[in-house]
Amino acid sequence: MEAVKAQGVRSESQVEDLGRCVDEISTTVNQLEQRVNDVEQFYMTTDNTQLTATKYSSVFKDKVKEKQLTNIEKQQQEASHREAAAVKRMQDLMRQFATILRQITQHKWAHPFMHPVDVEGLGLHDYYEVIQKPMDFGTIKSKMEAKDGIGYNNVREIYADVRLVFKNAMKYNDERHDVHIMAKTLLEKFEEKWLQLLPKVAEEEKRQVEEEAKSQLDMKLAQEAAHANMARELSNELCEVDLQLEKLRQMVIQRCRKMSTEEKKKLGTALTRLSPEDLSKALEIVAENNPGFQPTAQEVDLDIDAQSELTLWRLKVFVQDKLKLAGKCSEDVDCNNINNNGNTIKSNSKRKREISDALTKNAIKRTRKLSPNS
């Protein structure tokens, strides 16, 4: 009696050990699946340059951060340095532009344009109907000196507002009006001075476009390299999980005792009690280890005696689970226990099902295309 109990305890312990192995592998597989999805998403995204490390899943981000993020961070730092240098050069151009503007505003005819038009004081009731965007040199100067992000970003913006000052005056006032003549004269002087600065502005704008394109290309290449390395690592880890599953599968096969003739008979009877849908799933279990078996044929001849022990025990666990859910248990199949050489071992149907499914199904899709370079 004591020997029987000891054997039962050992068997139960073995099941628990196998269950823990399956849980560990399952956790690893879930993590790998998430990382595979991240790599696939990168290559399926049409605009890869918009991806940043902050969009990665936590698992993928941690993995990349260990080995791959260095190049991406390097490209980000270089881009930041280039951007800072470009801002400094643009500020220098803006200072040169400020010199031109100062020369224009110091002209004797500039005083009508130094402050916003006094619409009410001058009785210009239709001014806002004619002029959609009023502008003056006082407003331009304030915006040039702004430090809170509402100022000008480049010389072109200031240039456009200066022209707007004169264009508004010429639009509202008749061409014979003094203000119209003053605005036209100052605009011509301004354009002459602007043409002297324009080559430097055009050169800087061209440089910024080229640097931006290079920055995006470098970032894209760095990200592709990181994902290509990640894909190679994933392939190796997926193969390792496959090996672990195969070892665990062989271990279970070795520990499976042979099912008795009586147990096979009860299993065959129990199969007939399954619903059509569950019966189809049971036949699929048979087909997994028997390539020649056709589970979808109109007439299926299932030879219980010809099946492997692993298939038989998988079928028994599956049948127990389904019949218990359907309330069709009987003495032919005990839904709460599995007969094991006369010993009764409490079974966890869900755990058994997870173990059997994990061992016989290829949990990792080896043929999944991780990347063009993997």
Automatic annotation (TrEMBL):
<dbReference type="Pfam" id="PF17035">
    <property type="entry name" value="BET"/>
</dbReference>
<protein>
    <submittedName>
        <fullName>Transcription factor GTE1 isoform X1</fullName>
    </submittedName>
</protein>
<keyword id="KW-0805">Transcription regulation</keyword>
<dbReference type="Pfam" id="PF00439">
    <property type="entry name" value="Bromodomain"/>
</dbReference>
<dbReference type="InterPro" id="IPR038336">
    <property type="entry name" value="NET_sf"/>
</dbReference>
<dbReference type="InterPro" id="IPR036427">
    <property type="entry name" value="Bromodomain-like_sf"/>
</dbReference>
<keyword id="KW-0804">Transcription</keyword>
<feature type="region of interest" description="Disordered">
    <location>
        <begin position="342"/>
        <end position="374"/>
    </location>
</feature>
<dbReference type="InterPro" id="IPR027353">
    <property type="entry name" value="NET_dom"/>
</dbReference>
<keyword id="KW-0103">Bromodomain</keyword>
<feature type="domain" description="Bromo">
    <location>
        <begin position="105"/>
        <end position="180"/>
    </location>
</feature>
<feature type="compositionally biased region" description="Basic residues">
    <location>
        <begin position="363"/>
        <end position="374"/>
    </location>
</feature>
<dbReference type="InterPro" id="IPR001487">
    <property type="entry name" value="Bromodomain"/>
</dbReference>
<feature type="domain" description="NET">
    <location>
        <begin position="249"/>
        <end position="330"/>
    </location>
</feature>
